[in-house]
Amino acid sequence: MRLALFSNSYLPYLSGITISVKMLKDELRLLGHTVYVVGPSYPGHKETDPRILRLPSLPATYPGYRFVLPYSYSKFTALKCSGIELIHSHQPFGVGLAALGLARRLKIPFVYSFHTLFSRYVHNAPFVPQRFAKLIVANYLTWFCNQAGTVIVPSEMVRRLLVLRGVKTPIQVIPTGLQLGQIKQQAELGLQRTEVRKKYGLPANARLLLYSGRLSEEKNVPFLLKAFDRLQKDRPDVWLIVVGGGPKEKAYRRLAGDKVLFTGQIPHHEVINHCLAADLFVYASTTETQGLVLTEAKACGLPVVALFGGGLADVVKNGNDGYLVPRNESSLVEHIVRLLDDPGLRHGMSVRAKEDAQARFSSAVVAKKMETVYNSLIKGVV
User: Fold this and answer.
1) DSSP designation for 275
2) Least C-beta-crowded within 10 Å: which of 176, 225, 233, 318?
3) Spatial separation of the C-alpha atoms in residues 297 and 240, rounded to whole Å
4) Exposure string (b/e) for 26-39, b if CB count within 10 Å is 16 or more?
5) What confidence tens digit (pLDDT) does each residue in 260-295 have?
6) 56 DSSP 8-state letter
7) What pLDDT, in 10s, does the model give residues 354-378?
8) What is the C-alpha to C-alpha distance for residues 18 and 24, in angstroms, rounded to an integer?
9) What is the CATH architecture assignment of 2-177+362-380?
10) Residue 190: CB atoms within 10 Å
11) Domain 180-361, what fold?
């Protein structure tokens, strides 16, 4: 098959969506398919892959993000001449609309992956009343989903939500995949626990809690910092490492105590190294459609303690490889302490977390499922 993946963001910008698109592209190419990626250009980045097509972009207020100018006559003509058979968009706005328009002009199937609950992010549009903005966004997303041949969602929670919103298009639940081979290679070095502690000047026996993700309002990081403040008063050997960057990083640094370490934005392989060094993964966001960082943590053998909400119930098996707890600080602290104090319980959850990541979230498994969807749509075109 000859396929084109469209996204409003791509590497070198790091996010759950860019990682998802890269993994899908890599695995589909290993299966023998020709895969193009259409995404924004980034200052200073020189593209070496001729099948990654960069569109003009402008700076955005969000750190590192770019506003894409969603059209290029030369790039879209090149796609048309390449004989692409299907277009898969990973965003509903910007290049997503351009992708839909191109698919219609070429009369080829169009697939949309629903990665983000955009109606829960309207606080980023401060000059629009939130209730009005949520209604507009929800109605638009329903319309956009109904233009696709198939909608891909990462969790059963999102599938149910779209059905309730009136989406009639067939919906397939396919989670974002992980390149487990890369994680396995890094884990085989076996040095991360020692090296990360040395890097931050921590004792060799320091207990490390890890948060990884964007530092923005919807991630509920202040809740996590408050819970950790309660925890560490009685646990002097525990530190919290916050991996990632974002618009709230400076504000969160001011809120944090001296046992909270911020890494800022770091390369993806370094994120994995921090997961391999930690004891537990902690998370407070309740807006996730899946939570790719949780699947990465599980693949690294980290039990997860997170607030119940969003699509996390499709990732964490409560009581088996982690805990999904009520939305209060006491519950979060209680379950963290339970795992820290019981090495046997923690080890059992670690083993089951890795096994579940292998069984359900391998990028090779996910790519085969996606391949089946593409084949059914292409063969159905008259």
Assistant:
1) H
2) 233
3) 15
4) ebbeeeebebbbbb
5) 999 999 998 999 999 999 999 999 998 887 788 999
6) P
7) 999 988 999 999 999 999 999 999 9
8) 10
9) 3-Layer(aba) Sandwich (3.40)
10) 9
11) Rossmann fold (3.40.50)
Residue 357's contacts (CB-CB under 8 Å, 6 or more residues apart) are 178, 180, 295, 298, 299
DSSP assignment string, 215-245: -SGGG-HHHHHHHHHHHHTT-TTEEEEEEB-
- List the structure tokens of 65: 């993000």
Helix (H, G, I), strand (E, B) or coil at 274: helix
Q: Which residues pair with 178 in a beta bridge?
A: 362
Q: Which residues contact 358 (CB under 8 A, 6 or more apart)?
A: 180, 299
d(Cα 300, Cα 205) in Å, to the nearest integer? 19
Domain ranges of the chain: 2-177+362-380, 180-361
Q: How far apart are CA 38 and CA 27, in angstroms?
A: 17
DSSP state letters, 154-200: SSHHHHHHHHHTT--S-EEE-PPPB-HHHHHHHHHH--HHHHHHHHT
User: Token digits for 14?
Assistant: 């790091």
The DSSP code for 94 is T
The answer to whether 326 and 160 have CB atoms below 8 angstroms apart is: no
Distance CA 40, CA 54 (A): 5
d(CA 279, CA 288): 23
CA 105, CA 34: separation in Å to the nearest integer?
A: 20
Longest dimension (CA), the chain: 67
What is the model's pTM?
0.82
Closest CA to 178 of 367, 370, 380: 367
Segment (H or E) for 25: helix 16-30
